[in-house]
Specification:
Layout (H helix, E strand, L loop, with lengths): L1 H22 L10 H15 L13 E12 L3 H9 L11 E12 L2 E14 L2 E14 L4 E8 L3 E12 L3 E13 L3 H25 L3
Antiparallel strand pairs: 1-7, 2-3, 3-4, 4-5, 5-6, 6-7
Length: 214
């Protein structure tokens, strides 16, 4: 049964990629303007309410999984927090992430809010398909943590809380608390690939910070 669900999940993701390949350019990035993508972000925010952390209702056909991953970085917390919370530093280090479009960046009540869209270029059947992840990041600099809510096709929502903690030796432990909401037939696939992607990003940023690149 699990193999069947995973096969269905892969088929659904392949269908999304196939539609994107037809609707979008078979090359790097998208031909849409930043203003057009900003309008898409707002529509997704209004329609899917990916800021809403309410668990999926019973019988909705959707499931939720929460997990966490941690990594220790040999650098002071202020340096690690500044480098890690800057989403632009994830470009080239997160899997397939090619560009970040910032739609709005403002501060209120000691929190910095950033509305953004991440553009990912994914190889698919000899072409490069551009997919979008719409997100809001909320940075709490005084308390050394930030939150990010995202939405992407096929109706996958994530809620993230990334916490930074000082440890002896002037080092920093970064813990990513990850919550995934998706169709019940997709959830295992989404969690497995989502966690793997975040682990890759953690490792890459750790290496960049410790080597002095960031």
């Amino acid at each position: 049964m699990k193999k069947l669900l995973r096969l269905l999940a892969v088929q659904m993701f392949a269908a999304v990629l196939a539609v994107a390949a037809v609707a979008g350019p078979a090359g790097a990035d998208t031909t849409e303007t930043d203003a057009e993508i900003a309008a898409q972000w707002q529509n997704a925010w209004n329609t899917y309410k990916f800021y809403d952390t309410t668990p999926p209702a019973p019988g909705s056909g959707r499931s939720r999984v929460t997990t966490s991953i941690s990594i220790q970085i040999d650098a002071p917390i202020m340096h690690v927090f500044a480098a890690y919370s800057n989403i632009n530093n994830h470009i080239g280090r997160a899997a397939f992430l090619k560009r970040v479009i910032t739609h709005k960046d403002w501060c209120a009540g000691g929190t910095r809010y950033i509305n953004l869209t991440a553009i990912e270029d994914i190889p698919y059947e000899g072409a490069v398909v551009s997919l979008k992840t719409f997100a809001q990041q909320r940075i709490h600099s005084d308390d050394y943590y930030y939150e990010t809510d995202t939405w992407s096709e096929p109706n996958v929502v994530t809620h993230q809380k990334i916490v930074f903690k000082r440890v002896p030796g002037n080092k920093t432990v970064v813990t990513e608390n990850l919550t995934f909401d998706a169709d019940a037939t997709l959830i295992d696939f989404v969690v497995q690939n989502g966690v793997a992607s975040h682990q890759q990003t953690q490792t890459a940023i750790k290496q960049a910070i410790e080597s002095g690149q960031l």
